[in-house]
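Continuing the batch. This is chain 6 of the set; chains 1 through 5 are on the previous pages. Same settings as before, nothing changed between runs. Recording input and output for traceability.
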Amino acid sequence: MTTIQVWSDLLCPFAYVGILRLRRARERLGLDVSLEHHTFPLELFNGPHPRRGTDTEAVGLGQIEPEAHFRVWTEPDDRYPHTVLLAAEAVHAASAQSLRAGEELDLALRQAFWTHSRSISHRQVILDVAGQLAGVDVEALAAALDTGRHRADVMADFAVAQTDAIAGSPTFRLPDGSTVTNPGIEVHWEGPWAAGFPMVDADDPGVYDDLLRKA
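Output for chain 6:
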């Protein structure tokens, strides 16, 4: 089986778009390709996630990827997940069960945040989301979170992300070691980041067909 590494942050809208497009292309082409999720923890580079940043990016990217069902945050501000390190740890824990489990939990957590404004920083929310997935052993996931068994995996990914090996979120690493970051999308900002909004200059979803064929 072919495996593509996905390096991303759970609150990165560009990563969500990329993962959706990669999954769609994989299904359309009928290829047996697994996704192995790794953490590119933006909050460890930049500090706590700002709500205004994700809201403005969601508005911009929602125009090119309506199937993402992006929504601005609708819950009270004090429920906003300024950190998602525990959720990233949960994806590692699910991936230890199987790559498919990790892939499905990663996607479900993104959907919970971007569409349903769920605070995926919270342990119980993570477990509730996981409980809706047939392929995830929730009891084993809870035990892994409570012991911190996969915290070191997140920090090991951060160490790699600080090198030149991974350029940003999302980065896809193919079996031959080559990488591509945020494929198919070029943007610029109108106004300051988190106060202005992103403008999409170029968008080519078809790059994911080429990426999968290369893999």
